[in-house]
Structures are given as structure tokens and as C-alpha cells.
Amino acid sequence: MYLAILFFVSLVASSVGAICGAGGGVIIKPILDAIELTDVSSASFLSACNVFVMASYSVLKEIRMPDRKIDIEHVTPLALGAAVGGVTGKVIFERIKLKLPFLDMVGAYQAILLGTIAVGILVYTIKKNVIQTKQISSKTICALFGLALGTMSGFLGIGGGPINLVVLMYFFSMDTKTAAQNSLFIIFISQLFSLAYTICSGNIPEVMMIDVIVMVIGGYIGGTVGRKIGSKIDNNMLEKLFIMLLCTIALLSVYNFFNHIC
Question: What is this structure's pTM?
Fold first, then answer.
């Protein structure tokens, strides 16, 4: 039953993540926290494995397309900045974890920060039609944005999808579907660096190998299903799905916050 739940969560999360460009970690991490299948560190690691596989599949498929939506010139420095930031966020997470007396306190901080970010993104998404967007071209600024995104995402253990989407839509004037594909490219690069750091530093949490395998399989199948569905829906439907996702994340974050402190 445990593995079935883990697989179902990874499959649904990676499918939705592939459609929206939100990755999947932003769904997996709070759900695993809520149902208490794993501790905070293990949930982050399993989430990263799932998201990396899903993003790898989606990005490799998109790059091969003749009309690919990925803006390599501007998104690459953003992705590299996010990769460095992701490692920085993990370091911050580990140091805070060591200084706090209870691991649940770290989970509470993550939950309240994620909930706040989700609500902020939700407000922007609803109001974005009346907001004047920007068009950033400086690679240095792109890298700095990526650094900030990666640091938040690394600390939260979510991959950064929803935050990426808002940055891409506001600062680069991308429509929702284009932002989704570019977000997955950023997630792919940042998760590659993040997992490499975790493995090389010896900070892999105590997880069962079967759990990792289940998450990887769920990520691959979810990436396949999500990409097929995403190619058939328009921007309007994608935005509605994204809004539903943000509402779910916000509610889960509130639940997780009180669950950790009580």
C-alpha cells in the first residue's frame, strides 16, 4: 500500500507538473509532508529524483521539436543561476536543520514560506492580464534572477516550477505554454546540479532504493502523459489548471504548517 501511494502521488504530480511547467516537486513535497510517508529530508530527495526524470524527458522531447519554445539564449543563464542557487538553498536547509531542536520546525518554516509564495503567485496569475510585463535581455540579470529562484527552491525542496513561471511570464513576457516549457528547462538544469551536489556531498537521506525507483518510474510515465495532454490544451485551460494547482498547494501548506507545530 505504501509503494502504491508513493507511485500514485509521483505519477499525478509529475503529470500535472509536466503540463503546467511546475515540475512536480511543488506537489510531491507538501503531499508527502501532509500524509507523513517520509520525513522532511527524505521527501525533498525523493521529490528531486522524480522531478529530474520528468523534466529530463520533457526537455529532451521539446529540444528535438522544430518549433521548440525554449529560449536557450536567455533561459540558459537563468537556469545556471538557479542551479547555483539550488545548491545554496540546500546548504541553508541543512544548516538550519542542524541548529533547530526539532526537524518538524524546519517543515513548518518550509510550509509557511511555500504557502505565502503560492498565494502571491495565485494573485499575480489572476491579475496578470492587467499587469504590464517586462522584457529582460541582460544575461547577468537573468543569472541573478536564477540565483534567487534556485535558493528559494533548494530550501523548499520543490524544484521551483511555479516561481519560474511567474518570473518568465512577467520579466520575459512569455505566454503560459511557452513559460511552462522554459520552466521545465530551468528545473532540469537546477535539479541536475542539486542531485549531483547531494550525492557528492554524502547528504543523501536514509531512503529505501525501492522508493527511489518508484518515484523515478512515476516521473517518467508522468512526464510522458503530461506532455501529451499539454500539447492538446490551450493557454486558457492551462491557466485554469495552474490556478487550481496553486490553490491546492496553499491549502496543503496551511495544513502542513499546523501539523508540524502541533
Answer: 0.84
